[in-house]
Design brief:
GO terms for molecular function: arylsulfatase activity; glycosaminoglycan binding; N-acetylglucosamine-6-sulfatase activity. By secondary structure, this protein is of the alpha/beta class. The protein contains 17 helices and 18 strands. Bound molecules: 2-acetamido-2-deoxy-beta-D-glucopyranose (5 copies).
């Protein structure tokens, strides 16, 4: 059979399951290799990725960059779980880095080990490799008892020294832990990633997935000499990068930078203005983030070179992303950290290159998340999860882009959080950041609609118009005089959040279809029509009974139920269930 390359590639992506199952070992007729590089705590908002020359040259220029890409929950282990399961955090109920709310032990208790991305990829015929950090709570004490399933070969970075840049603890394939004092963590991860490429390409019959997870630019966590005391400090760079970025300053021009008036909600609103010493500390912290990323930049170059040397660069999709964002500009008077629903905390880099991925494209309009990316990798690999996952397909290839041309891009993101915030850095560690449960939705539609909306367990609401107020300083939901149109907008945003906060599967991908089953409205913009004012005003509103640690349904009523859907024939409003 003679097919043109483009037809072949199209069918490769359209029906990967069939191709993966085909017996012919033809080098073209199979699913793509995937190299997945996930860094730790790199935000998109401060654009640190622009300081990474190799990432720019080898990934951004050669592929597609998504500027509205988000973390489902702004903290490491929960967000990684959302990716690995292609699920929203309210469906994994992994909501923290520690038990009983999250961490590797709880991941296992919930039965997720063996029912996550690598296992599904193996079932689809992939060999699977991973080096670096999997998730919090995967430790030197439990790594052999609770071995991660689904991997061909692994090199795990293990707690409690995962975030120690200078004494990494690795287990190779579940063998006893080896410490590496005085070696730089990211370089050790890079070395192992190259080893995995060697191994994977030695077996040309199988497509491969290689996960590479360095810790940069996460805070350095060391242990104070001769004590159990943990030291949460700025990231550390390789000595060869220490001289860089000496003149880099924070962006003092941003409205959110250490403002004269309090802003935000909950504990953020109670923060005092930072003193000069503290701001200077954050400035150096930020420079250290940039410096630590330079070793990752070199890692990216070495990975691309190795793939090229092995002759597989053109058949390998390379994905670069982060697990969550990070605030490091003294925004809202904050110490360095993550966990909040602001852009710094949730907006993360995503760059993809590879076969049929458009070159040099910057997609600033579609809105996707790590849960979606997990689902997309499954799709490209022809793999399937053994439960109804929540992820939509991120349009990374030309073929997926054609689908969204027909069906529309995803234009909303649900950001969730339960449990407590985490203070980082010298002045942040030890801060008690309670009352930190919220659901938030980010909506981007064309040039006009660019909102974020959050409902907090404290009863507070936040609405920001990011076109007018990119720093999220003017909370429209709490201004003294609220216009009629703003109240109407809030009713719509709240309805979207009500549907999303317990969504499963298709409802997460297409929430408007749940509100308008007849398909008459499929965007916030369309829902703004006046004739729906009464309907949206009458819907029950998202709220919490009170703030408590953990995700407890009893505190989160009311919930969406199908009878709430818009019914054009029904004149009277529905009965609100207690
Ligand atoms: C590295 O970590 C191990 C395990 O905690 C410890 O025994 C060793 O002393 C550390 N080495 C250095 C140089 O800090
Ligand atoms: C500045 O603020 C930090 C954090 O609150 C505090 O520990 C420090 O003592 C303050 N320094 C000065 C010079 O006021
Ligand atoms: C948490 O929020 C409640 C309102 O839900 C408030 O009464 C309480 O003071 C808050 N606690 C802290 C530590 O901010
Ligand atoms: C929405 O707001 C963000 C933050 O200001 C801005 O970067 C972006 O360009 C705006 N528009 C879109 C379509 O995302
Ligand atoms: C989530 O997990 C916690 C801890 O096990 C549990 O208390 C809570 O009920 C769970 N929430 C839901 C909605 O299942």
């Amino acid at each position: 059979m003679l097919l043109s390359t483009s037809t072949l590639l199209a069918s490769l992506v359209a029906a990967p399951a069939l191709l993966a199952a085909a017996s012919s070992p033809s080098p073209v007729a199979r699913a793509p290799n995937i190299v997945f590089i996930i860094v730790d705590d790199q935000d998109a908002r401060q654009d640190s990725i622009s300081t990474m020359q190799n990432v720019q040259r080898l990934l951004v220029d050669q592929g597609t960059q998504f500027s509205r890409f988000y973390a489902p929950i702004s903290v490491c282990c929960p967000s990684r779980t959302s990716f690995l399961r292609a699920q929203a955090a309210h469906n994994t109920n992994i909501t923290s880095v520690v038990a009983p709310w999250g961490g590797w032990e709880v991941f296992n208790e919930k039965g997720y080990n063996g029912h996550y991305l690598p296992s599904f990829l193996q079932d689809a015929g992939y060999s699977t490799y991973y080096t670096g950090k999997l998730m919090n709570g995967h430790t030197v004490r439990n790594f052999d008892r609770l071995e991660p399933e689904g991997w061909t070969e692994t090199d795990w970075l293990l707690d409690p020294q995962t975030y120690n840049y200078w004494n990494a603890s690795f287990s190779h394939n579940g063998e006893p832990v080896v410490y590496h004092p005085d070696e730089y963590s990211t370089d050790l991860v890079a070395e192992r990633a190259l080893g995995h490429i060697e191994k994977a390409t030695a077996n040309p019959d199988k497509p491969f997935f290689i996960g590479v997870a360095p810790i940069a630019p996460h805070s350095h966590i060391g242990i104070v000499d001769h004590t159990d005391q943990i030291l949460f400090d700025m990231p550390q760079s390789a000595p060869r990068h220490q001289h860089l970025f000496k003149d880099v300053k924070l962006d003092y021009s941003r409205a959110s930078h250490n403002p004269d008036h309090p802003s935000g909600a909950s504990w953020v609103k109670k923060l005092e203005k930072l003193n000069v010493t503290n701001v200077e500390y954050i400035e150096e912290f930020y420079r250290q983030r940039l410096r630590s990323l330079q070793a990752v930049d070199e890692l990216v170059e070495s990975v691309v070179k190795k793939l090229e040397e092995k002759g597989v660069l053109d058949e390998t999709i390379i994905i670069y992303t982060s697990d969550n964002g990070f605030e490091a500009n003294a925004g809202h008077r904050r110490q360095p950290g993550k966990t909040l629903p602001y852009e710094e905390d949730i907006n993360i880099p995503l760059v993809v290159r590879g076969p049929t991925v458009p070159k040099g494209l910057v997609d600033s309009t579609s809105v996707y998340s790590l849960a979606d990316l997990g689902a997309t990798i499954l799709h490209l690999a022809g793999a399937v999860s053994d439960y109804d996952n929540d992820g939509a397909l991120v349009p990374i290839t030309k073929e997926l882009r054609k689908t969204i041309d027909a069906e529309g891009v995803k234009q909303h993101h649900l950001a969730e959080y339960w449990v407590e915030g985490v203070g980082e850095g010298k002045y942040g560690q030890g801060l008690v950041l309670t009352n930190q449960t919220y659901r938030a939705v980010r909506v981007v539609e064309g040039d006009e609609i660019n909102f974020s909306y959050a409902v907090w367990c404290t009863g507070e609401h936040e609405i920001y118009d990011l076109n007018a107020d990119p720093d999220q300083m003017i909370n429209l939901a709490e201004t003294a005089v609220r216009s009629e149109s703003l109240i109407k907008l809030q009713h719509r945003l709240d309805a979207l959040l009500l549907v999303l906060k317990t969504c499963v599967g298709e409802v997460c991908r297409n929430p408007w279809k749940t509100v308008f089953p007849d398909g008459s409205v499929s965007s916030l913009n369309a829902g703004l029509e006046k004739r729906f004012d009464g309907y949206f005003a009458d819907l029950p509103k998202v709220k919490y009974s009170y703030c408590d640690i953990g995700y407890h349904r009893r505190l989160e009523a009311p919930f969406w139920y199908d009878e709430l859907a818009f019914n054009p024939k029904q004149k009277s409003s529905f009965v609100i269930q207690a």
